[in-house]
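Notebook, bench 3.
Goal today: get a predicted structure for Estradiol 17-beta-dehydrogenase 1 from Cervus elaphus hippelaphus so we can plan the truncation constructs. The sequence was checked against the plasmid map this morning, with no discrepancies at the termini. Length recorded as 322 residues. Pasting the sequence as submitted so the record is complete.
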Amino acid sequence: MDRTVVLITGCSSGIGLHLALRLASDPSQSFKVYATMRDLASQGPLLEAAQSRGCPPGSLETLQLDVRDADSIAAAQARVTEGRVDVLGEPPRKTSPRAFLSLCPDQDVPRPTEHEGTGRKEGLCNAGRGLVGPLEAHKEGSVDAVLDVNLMGTVRMLQAFLLDMKRRRSGRILPALTRRSPARSVSLIECGPVHTPFPEKLEGGLGGMLDRADAETRDLFYRYRRHCERVIREAGQDPEEVVEVFLQALRAPRPALRYFTTERFLPLVQLRVSDPSGSSYVAAAHQSAFHDKAAEGSDGAGAEAEAGKLGASELRAPLAPQ
C-alpha cells in the first residue's frame, strides 16, 4: 500500500513534534513522515517519543532543514525518496493590532504535500519565531529575524514545493492562506494559545528592551502580559488536541476554508465581519486585554456585550467538513 508522505518543518518541539508523532504512529500506518528541523542535535525528544509510542519502522525520518536557507530546503527536498509532495501546510501566524507588536507563529503546524495515484506526499510547515512587546522596545533586526522565518520561510517553502503540486494538479496546503483550486486545496487553521516552548523562541526575550518604552507603555504591556498568562492558564490547549484538527483537515475530501482549534475566541472573530469599521472588534479586544471601560460612543459602546451575545453555535467553523 502506498503511503501518504508528509513533510513537516519545526519538529524539534511544539505542534510540529506532536504532529509528526501522531501521523507516524497512526494505526492505519498510511503515513510516511519526514520530520525536519533546523538543528538535528535537537531531534532527541522526537526520536525518544517515537520509540516510546512504538512508531513502525520506516514511518518517521528526520531531516535537517532551515527555512531561512533555500539551499537547505532544496537539500531536504532531494532526500525525500518518494519525489513528490501532496500537502503543504504551515502554522498560523498571529499579529496584534494593539499597542504591542506580536508576531507569533501560533504553534508548530504542517507544511507541504503532494500526491500521485494513491501514494501521497504531505508537508507541514511549523518552523517559527516570536516577537512580543512594545514595538519601540525591540532592537534593530529583531523584526527582520522573525519575518525571515515566519514570512519568508513560508515563501521559500512554497517556492520549493508548489510548482510540482501544480504540475501534478494535486496537493493540499494546510494553514496560512485560504484558496482552493482544482489542483490543490488551501485551508487556514487558527489556533488559540497552545502549551508549547514558544516563549523560548521570542526574539530579544519577552517584552524586548522595555527601558526604551515610556512608563505608560510599560504599564500597558505588563497588564497585557498578565492577560495573556491568564488566557493560557484558562484556555491553553495541549498540542495533541490541536494536532487532531490538522488531521481532520488533512483527511477531509473537501476541506473547509477555515478551521478553529477552539471556540473560545469565535465571538471576537465574528466581530471582524459584523462591524466593517473594525471598531467593535478593537473595543472588545481592548476590553478583554486591559479590563478598561469600553470606549464611549456608537463605534465602541456595547462591543463587549455584542461579543457575549454571539453564540459558538452561530460561529462554529467545521472541524470535519462534509
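Confidence is low (pLDDT under 50) at residues 91-123, 176-184, 292-322. The chain has two domains: 4-94+106-128+148-198+238-263, 265-314.
Flagging this for group meeting.
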